[in-house]
Design brief:
This protein has 10 helices and 20 strands. The termini are far apart. A 6-stranded mixed beta sheet has the order 4-3-2-1-5-6, with helices on both faces. Strands 8-9-12-20 form a 4-stranded mixed beta sheet, with helices on one face. The chain is an alpha+beta fold. The protein folds into 2 domains: 129 residues, 3-Layer(aba) Sandwich (Creatine Amidinohydrolase, Chain A, domain 1), CATH 3.40.350; 223 residues, Alpha-Beta Complex (Creatine Amidinohydrolase). The longest helix has 21 residues. α4 packs across α5, α7 crosses α8 and α9 runs antiparallel to α10. Bound molecules: manganese (II) ion (MN).
Length: 360
């Protein structure tokens, strides 16, 4: 699919929403949706869609970039008063009723609403998130690339690790190595939690030294072509106790059970249930988190959410994380995370890094 076809197909989803809700316009203000529907990657822009036309309002830093990145899109350059030009373009496109994302700040929305006058506004987030939930071939390619960068960097990190390094040393080395592999940025603040700090689900790397016997949770992701990867491994430093290894094995078992449950037609909650069954069997459910995973894409957390009770039906093209964990406050934490793709007849695990990695 070329760029024109890609965006035409995505915009068809927006126009379908407009038809279903008796609207003649749509406006996108978030970075992700602008990028998804027209390809523009600048930090400032307002994308306006009607049944026939697409317009983008941005500023002088980005007008040339916008021309290069978009197709069949009219570019408007605002000077001082951005919202006035946005309203002017909306009016000139003949819009009378429009859907907007609900993520605009009040500071922007209140004056904009005034300038839009009698235009009827409806707010929507879920529908567009759901549209982005099923990835096309190009998106799947970008996510595969992001995963490849992350794994190649992580693979080079392993031989550099030693007992006595700090958590921050681990994160710093990792950041350098993934950047060398072509990562544009990290998808989120890297988590490195060693020993008892592993029980903090969002441990920020500190100057704490890694000790013999520590299990170390490393959770990170990188961005490539705007798309995110996400992976976690719990590294086993030195002589890890038998009891900790048992926990490690149970987390691995729960991930294996969850991934085995993934296929088209299954509900998100069934995948969650499959992993939780292992903890319920062992009487350890109180030590697990309440969710198993999340979609990845232009954002690090997208739909589908693989959480208790979620009735989303899995479809080919969905990509999400499977990241079970057990956390014992004051003692240890274990988590492992792979990114999986729902295929026509089952599942493909996009992550290839081994799960059990011993250091020293
Ligand atoms: Mn994750």
């Amino acid at each position: 699919m070329d760029k024109r076809e890609t965006f035409a197909k995505r915009l068809a989803g927006v126009r379908q929403y407009m038809t279903e809700h008796d609207l003649d316009g749509a406006m996108f203000t978030s970075y992700e949706n602008r990028r998804y529907y027209c390809g523009f990657t600048g930090s400032n822009g307002c994308l306006i869609v009607t049944p026939e036309k697409v317009s983008l309002v941005t500023d002088k830093r980005y007008t040339e970039q916008a021309r290069q990145q978009t197709v069949d899109c009219e570019i408007h350059e605002h000077a001082a008063n951005r919202l006035s030009l946005v309203a002017e373009v909306v009016h000139s496109m003949g819009i009378t009723a429009m859907v907007m994302e609900s993520c605009m700040t009040l500071e922007e929305f209140i004056p904009l609403k005034e300038k839009l006058g009698n235009i009827r506004l409806v707010f929507e987030q879920e529908y567009f998130l759901e549209q982005r939930m099923v990835k096309d071939e190009e998106e799947i390619g970008h996510i595969r690339d992001a995963i490849r960068c992350a794994e190649a960097g992580f693979d080079k990190l392993i031989p550099r690790l030693k007992i006595g390094m700090t958590e921050k040393d681990v994160a710093d080395e990792l950041h350098y190595l993934v950047s060398k592999e072509g990562a544009e940025a990290m998808s989120f603040g890297t988590i490195v939690g060693s020993g008892a700090r592993g029980a903090l689900a969002h441990a920020f790397p500190t100057e704490k030294k890694i000790e013999d016997g520590d299990m170390v949770v490393v959770d990170f992701g990188v961005m490539k072509d705007g798309y995110c990867s996400d992976m976690t491994r719990t590294l086993l430093f030195g002589n890890v106790s038998k009891e900790h290894m048992r926990i490690f094995s149970l987390v691995q078992e729960s991930q294996d059970k969850a991934i085995a449950a993934v296929r088209p037609g299954v509900l998100a909650r069934d995948v969650e249930d499959a992993h939780r069954a292992v903890y319920l069997r062992e009487g350890l459910d109180d030590y697990a988190l309440r969710g198993l995973g999340h979609g990845i894409g232009l954002q690090i957390h997208e739909c589908p959410r693989i959480v208790i009770g979620n009735e989303t039906v899995l479809k080919p093209g969905m990509i999400f994380t499977v990241e079970p964990g057990l956390y014992f406050p004051g003692d240890c934490g274990v988590r492992t995370e792979d990114d999986v793709l729902v295929t026509e007849d089952g599942v493909e695990n996009l992550s290839h890094t081994p799960h059990e990695i011993h250091i020293g």
